[in-house]
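Example (one chain per record):
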Amino acid sequence: MLDDLDLPNFAGLGGLPSLPSLPGLGSIPGMPNLPGLASLPGYAGLMPQMMMTLGLFVFGLYSVPYQQLQRQTQWRHPSASRVGRRPARQFVGPGDDGIDLSGTLYPELTGGRISLALLREMADTGKAWPLIQGDGTFYGLFVIESISETGSIFFPDGAARKIDFGIKLTRVDDEEVDMLGAMTETLMALL
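Predicted structure:
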């Protein structure tokens, strides 16, 4: 079946354009310094892709790689009771727009408590943050409503080897720029 397809010959991938030289992972804030990564097959000159950003916090393989994204958008249609008929409804505008991120962290391989602590610091500010997906999709300004974490499979010192997490984000009106968070203040407070 595949023999019937007319596919180009990429013998050794030599026919593909070369990738630009990118900085090492250790030069990016929040990314671990992994000197041996470039020596692995398929990683030479490549940088892990970001899944999404909330402000300047990058969701990715080495911070908080979520495994599920659920979005729920609502519209408001209040009703007015009528005698002998169904209630009348009127569209009055958009309602809540929420995104729930969930997944599992393995601190030996991915981000851990420090990444979740940074998200909690962002939530403590009460500010809204721009949410942008790795493919460039801009969702709007979101506040962090809640973060849950459940640790299991513990090391002898009590640190969790496995952390299940959930993050609830809610969109605020884009006109509310006074709520826009400044990540620099949060980062400096942590240092």
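Caption: Residues 82 and 88 are 7 Å apart (CA to CA).
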